[in-house]
Amino acid sequence: MDQASRMTPPQTRGTRLLRKLAGHRAVWPLLALAVILIVDGFVAPGFFTIRIVEGRLFGSLIDILYRAVPTALLALGMAVVIGTKGIDLSVGSVIAVVGATIAWRIHEGDPHFVILLVALGVGLLCGIWNGFLVAVLDIQPIIATLILMVSGRGIGLMINLIYGGTNPSFESPLLQGLSVGHLGLIPTRLILGAAIFAVLWLLIRRTALGLFLEAVGGNAAAADLAGINARLIKYSAYLISGVCAGWAGIILTADTHTSDPVSVALYSELDAILAVVIGGGSLAGGRIYLGMTLIGVLVIQALTTSILTSGLPPEYNLLVKAVVVLFVLLLQSNNFRKAVFSLFRRGTARRGRP
Amino acid sequence: MGEATNPRIELLGVSKTFPGVRALEKVDLRLRAGEVHALLGENGAGKSTLIKIMTGALRADEGEIRLDGRPVEIRTTGDAQALGISTVYQEVNLVPTMSVTKNLTLGRQPLRFGLISWRSASALARQRLRRLNLDIDVERQLGSYSVAIQQLVAIARALEDDTRVLVLDEPTASLDANETNLLFQIVRDLKSHGIAIVFITHFIDQVYEISDRISVLRNGRLVGEALTAELPRLQLISMMLGRALGHVEEQAKAKARAGKTEAAPVLEARQLGRRRTMAPFDLSLRPGEVVGLSGLLGSGRTETAKLMFGAIHPDSGQVQLEGRPVLRNSPRHSLRNGIVLCPEDRKAEGLIGELSVRENIVLALQTKRGWLHRLPLDEQNRLAEEMIKALDIDTPDADKPVGQLSGGNQQKVVLARALASRPKVLLLDEPTRGIDVGAHAEIVALIRRLCAEGLALLVASSELDELVAVSDRVAVLRDRNMVGEMAGDDITRENIIRTIAGGRSWTKPQE
């Protein structure tokens, strides 16, 4: 009895720390990522080994990062848009348009450096279109971006028709260098992704743009009275998202050496939204978590990769992914956590009784 | 204590802790049948928490609730309603886009052959309103009625045949004197039917007008309970504040009006107006001067301030800043020109709840600097700390989301944002709405200090005493027209009321 009472204080302090930790938004996504990786470690021997093969890094972890880059770019742009209480459903289709444009201009024989700029320009143009609908015409974001989501792949197919491209595949040292090449040991696209993240982070957190974006997303009327040009700020979010999708389009198109508007990056906008949400972003707007969004992307990509390496039939892929994502989101739900905590507490209380 | 009538409902030793805050500490509350019980306290005293526990919106950590002497358990709002405890919350919890009938019968529509019978629903709605002697078109959208009518509809919805306890959380906050009188008639009527009524308000006058008994909370504890007739005002206020009030009253009386009206106006409206919003008016604001804006609810106070700020686009007239016409009139340009507006509705137009106290405070200054010149974090923190201290904002730290602060502190954050941008002209729309006595006095004192430092101030307020106390000039509005202006010693309660009343037959709301 005496002993038991002496035991209690550290225990409660421990649980308090645990609860404080549980309340922090970064904990659950990181935990989920760790669990997925640890399970992988057991299922696939040598999962954590990173070797150097033919002068470049090789291994499952590198593979996860490598494959995550396009989704990460989309998700970063998406995080900014969602922070303004918006959504950008068109990013997958923007990739299709960018891909078709690249194939077309290569066919026309433009210098590849110009093509790179044109590709980014197409992304920006898509952002201008979305921003115009949302910020200027005040159309609800989900509908406004749905228009380009639906039409984008059609635009891609039409661009393919311009040059009669029955076989739109191409070779481009510059674009493929950016996508599948490597600088020293490291894949170029990782460096590219990191650079874009850094630029975006500086733009959001080292200028006041992030504060304005979050203010507009949190309460547009209040932001307006505080002197913020809410339209312009909203507009900028769609521009950022468009350019991010442009970069993702360059990487994916160069990766496949071809323009395939029908199936390139299919459903990738949904992965991007999911990554933002797993990273703790709320569709109600008001907060932008760039770093956590990357964790969200890694959760999704690690999951996909591990299903493939685990030897499960690929038919299970989507279902397993859905279940794990559901679990991560449940962990983030305050109500769910409270329910589980109280169950747990009741359980220990009963056990503790003599 | 008079134990003649047994308590209808008793809350005994109720405690509640939120993360980091002890909201209630062994509080007792006893409500007797047929009495109006005023529950008073400063912002954050624990009134809302106590009410939420009584109505099942929150559960107490410890303590007991007894209804007519029997211990009861209230786990959900449904339990509370089943026991006859009804609440009308501060913000009207109805759907403004639906008809009055739908609002009154939502969730309990009369069914006929398994389908909703709208005819009997309307009848039911009318019958509910008749209990409050209210005869309005129940098919009209609720939002098309005045806030006062909406408030009464909310009460009608809360009242059941078996209601034993009715909680009114700041029911008069947005009502004018006549509307308040109407509400009080209804409250007296309900009282005579033996309902125990909890009345929460910031208006001390109204406490003495309507309540039979007072309980005062401070920092989550019950400071005292007394019969209203036996509790002098000064004592009540010092109970609420926990300190003597002398200086507050002195401040309100001390008025320094030394030839300020000679200075050239900073901001001037010339025949500024907008159709169906506000008739064209002239108004000038001078440095070091407080101009009050008085008028009944809906007389155009907010519209006047917003027109001058550029939040409402005028269709006639112009605004002049330091003698030069302002070409582009918008919140953005106004802010750059050193004009700030603190809006009346802080939830909808003031605060950004997700953002921290610090971010909310620096927002306007940051807008002024532009997005490229981000205020360094040290500077932000310094500014936030300075404002938290200067306005006595009650928050554990500057990084707390502002949505988690109590109402009065949120209002101070809105004010802090305006001040942090170092304005030349400050337009305050209802700066003390929903604010307790202590914070009220602080804000009034602050207004005078700012004014002494050369700021030009416009204060739109529904509280006459406040306007009389702070204003050097008062512009009076009636039905969206500016009908008069007075200055100096002419500014009295009676004068303002007479001007508002104008040609119409008017009975003074009080006395």
Structure description:
- The complex is a heterodimer of chains A (354) and B (511).
- Chain A has helices spanning 2-23, 27-43, 60-83, 91-108, 112-136, 141-162, 173-180, 188-205, 209-218, 220-225, 230-256, 268-278, 290-309, 317-332, 334-352, and strands at 51-53, 56-58, 182-183, 186-187.
- Chain A has 354 residues and is mainly alpha-helical.
- In chain A, the strands form two sheets. In chain A, strands 1-2 form a two-stranded antiparallel ribbon. In chain A, strands 3-4 form a two-stranded antiparallel ribbon.
- In chain A, α9 crosses α11.
- The longest helix of chain A has 27 residues, at 230-256.
- The N and C termini of chain A lie close together (10 Å).
- Chain B has four domains: 7-84 and 162-244, 3-Layer(aba) Sandwich (Rossmann fold); 91-146, no CATH class; 264-338 and 423-511, 3-Layer(aba) Sandwich (Rossmann fold); 352-422, no CATH class.
- Chain B has a six-stranded mixed β-sheet with strand order 6-9-10-3-11-12, sandwiched between helices.
- The longest helix of chain B is centred in the middle third of the chain and has 16 residues, at 177-192.
- Residues 244-260 and 503-511 of chain B have low confidence and may be disordered.
- The interface between A and B is medium-sized, with 23 and 32 residues.
List the helices and strands and how they pair.
The complex is a heterodimer of chains A (354) and B (511).
Chain A: H1 2-23, H2 27-43, E1 51-53, E2 56-58, H3 60-83, H4 91-108, H5 112-136, H6 141-162, H7 173-180, E3 182-183, E4 186-187, H8 188-205, H9 209-218, H10 220-225, H11 230-256, H12 268-278, H13 290-309, H14 317-332, H15 334-352
Antiparallel strand pairs in A: 1-2, 3-4
Helix pairs in contact in A: 2-13, 3-8, 3-11, 3-12, 3-13, 4-5, 4-6, 4-11, 5-6, 5-11, 7-11, 9-11, 12-13, 13-14
Chain B: E1 7-18, E2 21-32, E3 36-40, H1 47-54, E4 62-67, E5 70-72, H2 77-82, E6 85-88, H3 100-105, E7 111-112, E8 115-116, H4 118-130, H5 147-158, E9 165-169, H6 177-192, E10 196-200, H7 204-210, E11 213-218, E12 221-227, H8 233-241, H9 246-253, E13 267-274, E14 278-285, E15 290-294, H10 301-309, E16 316-321, E17 324-325, H11 331-336, E18 339-342, H12 346-350, H13 357-369, H14 377-390, H15 407-420, E19 425-429, H16 437-452, E20 456-460, H17 464-470, E21 473-478, E22 481-487, H18 493-501
Parallel strand pairs in B: 3-10, 3-11, 6-9, 9-10, 15-20, 15-21, 18-19, 19-20
Antiparallel strand pairs in B: 1-2, 1-4, 4-5, 7-8, 11-12, 13-14, 13-16, 16-17, 21-22
